[in-house]
Amino acid sequence: MPRRKKAVTTCQLETELALLYDISSLVQLSPPNRETFENLLKLIGKVIDFRAASLFLVSPETGQLAESASVGQTVDLIGFVRFDMGMGLSAWVAKEKRPIMLNNLRKNISGAQTRSFISAPMIFKEELIGVINLSHDQPESFTNRDLQMIGIIASQAALAIERMIYEYQLKKINTELRDANLKLQEAQAKLVEYEKKQLAADMAATINHEINNPLAIISGNAQFLLMTMKNSNPSILKRLQAIDKEAANIAQITEKFRQMDKVVVENYIRGDSRKVINLRKSMTAGKEC
Length: 289
Description:
alpha+beta, two-stranded antiparallel sheet, single chain, Beta-Lactamase, Helix Hairpins, 5-stranded antiparallel beta sheet
């Protein structure tokens, strides 16, 4: 008999150690969501027999306990009583930061009778992370070993959950920073493009003012002379027509500057570092985009 008792104890210890390893593996590979916490409660069921279990976490926004996962019915007692961290016995356990075990109750939870109840705070570096509650419909269902074990599990879970939440928040912050950096790069590119367009607009306005005004006078005088000197020397008329034609060509170039959507530059001559504006591409670049 003593040998059998020792073998059972060894097997039990191996199961408990395996559980702690499984809890650590679970939280390392899973996000901090309801499904993960439900799986955590199910793992506890491998070493502590219960009918229902709940995990409560402290809300960083309110500082109050909030139910984050349950297996079966939500487990708590005296839900009508308010404590500093919320309603129910869970809030009392959270405030006192110590486990409690009640083994001879007469409590109905949504029609399900609770005869045994155990609750343990999850604490990491003296900071409360949450509370784990277990219940059973039979009296005297939990033992002192269960109380000791749920305390160990709660400490392990507190460390794991705190690290899980920290890593999740860190990933979230990194994602937000990456997205913000991409948006900043896009904004910078748009600003550079806007400055180029503004430069093109300013340049077009300058050209229109500085060139078109005297050009209109030249073209107008050339056309006036052509009308009034129809019988003049053909050579003079040809020169006047050339002046009028080139004035019209210059007017078309200034109009292209005015219609530029984007400044597109190219090498002036192959091998030459100087750049020139390609008016045709600058007019169509914005439309192609």
